[in-house]
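User: Can you fold this complex?
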Amino acid sequence: MNRRLYDKLIFEHSRSGRHGYSLPANRFDRHIDELPESCSRKDAPALPEVDEPTVVRHYTNSSTNNFGVDTGFYPLGSCTMKYNPKINDALAASPSIARLHPLQPADSVQGALSVYWELQKALSEIGGMAEFTLNPFAGAHGELTGLLVIKAYHLSRQDAGRNVVLVPDSAHGTNPASAAVAGFKVVEVKSLPDGTVDVEDLRGKLNDSVAAMMMTNPNTVGMFEKNIPEIARIVHEAGGLMYYDGANLNPMLGIARPGDMGFDVMHINLHKTFSTPHGGGGPGAGPVGVRKGLEPFLPNPRVVKNADGTLGVVCEDTSLGRISGWLGNFTIYVRALAYILGLGGVNVAKVGPLATLNANYVLNRLKDVYELPIPGPCKHEFVFDGLKDKSTGVTTLNVAKRLLDFGFHAPTIYFPLLFHESLMIEPTETESRETLDSFIDAMRKIAAEAISDPETVKEAPHDTPVSHPDDTEAALHPVTSWQDLCAAQNS
Amino acid sequence: MLYYLPTHEYARIEGNIATIGISEFAAHQLGNVVYVDMPEEDDEVTKGEDFGAIESVKAASDLFSPVSGTVVEVNEALVDNPRLVNEDPMNNWIIKVEMSDPSELEELLSPEAYEKVCEAEKH
Amino acid sequence: MSAHRYFPHTPEDVTDMLAACGASSLDDLYSDVPAELRLRKPYELPEEMSESQLRDYFDKLGSLNRRMVCFAGAGYYDHYTPAVVDAILSRSEFLTAYTPYQPEISQGTLQYIFEYQSMMCALTGMEISNASMYDGATATAEAMIMAVNSARKKRRILISATVNPAVAEVVSTYARYHDVTLEVIPEHEGVTDRAEFEAMMGAGDVAGVIVAYPNYYGIVESYDGWADICHAAKALFIMNCQASTLGVLRTPASLGADIVCGDAQSLGMPLNYGGPYLGYMCTTKALMRKLPGRVVGATTDRNGQRVFVLTLQAREQHIRREKATSNICSNQGLMALHTAVYLSLMGAEGLRKINDLGYGGLRYLADGLAATGRMRLKYPERPFVNEALFRVADPLTADMVLEATAAQGILGGVKVDECEILIAVTEMQSKEDIDRYVSIVKNIKL
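Assistant: Here's the predicted assembly.
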């Protein structure tokens, strides 16, 4: 990564009279200026006027301010930042799909529907589910969709009083937020000191108002919930359903399936476990799987296999409704299917163990200098509660920022909320031992610096394109557009 | 007369008017306040229910009303300068409410009882 | 040898690393997983494919798709994607980055989101844009929730019957489960019925009103005075707008909109059988703290350098949990980059030319079809941009037209009714394509 900031905005390259578009000549007689004045824009939108080479150079330079999986190691806990295979991007860019309109008749898009169908089938096999919908656009959208499946299920049984979703106190904030958007009340279930769900606390909270229990497994501290059969049994006995948040599915590949653990509904983050690129925050995909019997509640539209073996798209009355304009982020499925086929069943099953090996290796080589509140073995990730030596005043935030100087992305910090100084590390199966060793060296060096030269750590980062931004000023007086910037300069 | 809720809102009572804000303790815990979401004049508030929210860079909390009644004044100074809450939360109140049921005050915490709540949270 | 090219582990690595963990096998690391939960049999998945096999596999599937000259719209339009956009989007630094939570090493992402926000403000005339959302339908549903949250106690939302039905269905799903009462303002001759709207507002308790611009039939409805009626009732005026047409249409801001949202697919995003596209959402400064999703702001770093950060985060789900404005914790990052690059290339002038080409083509098609006596504009007096509703004259039906065009490799539009077809024209359909469409219709045998 470039250490120097490229600091221009495209607006700062604009010069009246330049253009970067290429359009066919207009051979028609009638023109848009016929539009009545009452419908027409008075002033042209203030977009930049730039030539093509300037656009290319601007965005290329801007990209050098960024860190990606292709530039370096991204030990972000709970984010599964694995390598994104290039062949998958190439296949997703195929001209045979670029111009397919979503409302084309099914007989003209059988190839596209096959991608949907095959991925749906593969995910069902891996998740131990009966069917997946690929329509949800992201993990959070999948959670919402899955919870709506659960709501539609209870409503179909005239069991309308179930308005509570149970969520462990270690859960990511998205779980309670999704439950609230789905119209549920959220009740937290306590964790035991080892980070797993307190079954006794859960038992006390189960009653006929409970619609579902939402869990990740392994949970957010990277521990396998070994009481899961018991948890599933008592939730089911109380009439609730089990929801699996697939954020942490990666270490389970080749080991166990959520369906076999007793989960009824689950979502998968294709941008985590199935290697589709994060794209700086999206587009992702959050397919939702259901066990047998819950398929009728999946969102519209649904891809189905017709009697003659062709694929069709249908909308059904039993469905929870529509949650996306069409069938979701299609080019993301192409990538995920290509990833599964490129690995093959045998290697898909190796993903989990290798990811878990990497995590345990890092854990074991750092636990003498960082505080490990929950002893291993962990699964794909683990949490340190800051440095072991707390006397130096060096915080988790300081360690994270200092890592940037060593060319690594920071781990997830201050999550989960169970510990004050959470530092959550997830090295995926695509990281080599050498990469892990150099990360371990950097982490150990920072721990040593915290004692010998704490100020250097506290002032970090020192070697990045920019230094620490003033967040307070940004939130107090938000400047969120070029127009705001210009107004601020003029005042 | 000064009363508190365990959620750190205070109510200073003068006649039938309750002046409501957040405690010194809460202001310190939040850190730099960047925004206060306030109701409008004439809005109804209910004891124990939220009437707005207060945000710092890294946190946000609902504001709960210690009393029921009608909002008669909101502190407009906080719109442009929310940090006033950090500087002097007791004088930089958030809303004034004309109480509909002053007997509700009996259920609130005294300054001494509230002090104990803060002590407990520090540990 | 390592098991696969995506896994760097040699057998020696595995042995050494296990030793460092005090384990003797990979299975040891899973000793806490109860035996009865372990995978009972190998996955029933296809065998590993090499890259060339993967290409063959997807080529074969691709050959089962039919590429057609696309006159279909209904919210998704066949526009050209400049090669520059693909080249920039494939930059690894952009493509493989995570959410920009570490601003020191994410200025690339933060800069383009800031540019994207600025461009959406320029198009809509609004004061603030978020960093983007999933698609136009979900963005409109989020706008509804924002209106309900802003109104605190009111939970009634009105939506025009002229909103795209797919969008309306998504809004209705969110409403149903979010305890929002959603009522439809009826349509009258292709536009929202103003008298009905005023009557429904009169009944009180409305938190927001959702209209489409242009509407589902491609008509540019006049919303003069609508915002005033909404504001008098303390309701928000929400406009769902097709992004590219904002290059020529009167701005939603000048019509008094409080929230502007919709799909930005029409800004040159490949159709890709449904996605990814981009949902945008803009609002006023007054409502900025209620805006769901991410927002990027400018500030300074310790050296006084202008830098960009994620801001207004306190309302987001990772802090507010169940009290968050939305459960969204991502945006369509890469598609926001697409939009920024596309609009940089097009500029205001390019956007106007695109609208001009679509409009000219559609008028040319309408004239040609009218001359056949078999299809005509259903609402010839209403203003439209690049899409319009056509009526098929008896005994011809919509299906007959769509089948006849499909047989010649033309996607003839979207059927709305037995005798109505929605047709869109963009810069991608040549004059010759349009002539062909007309001649196919002329030659349908009855």
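Residues 393 and 454 of chain A are 8 Å apart (CA to CA). DSSP finds 15 helices and twelve strands in chain A.
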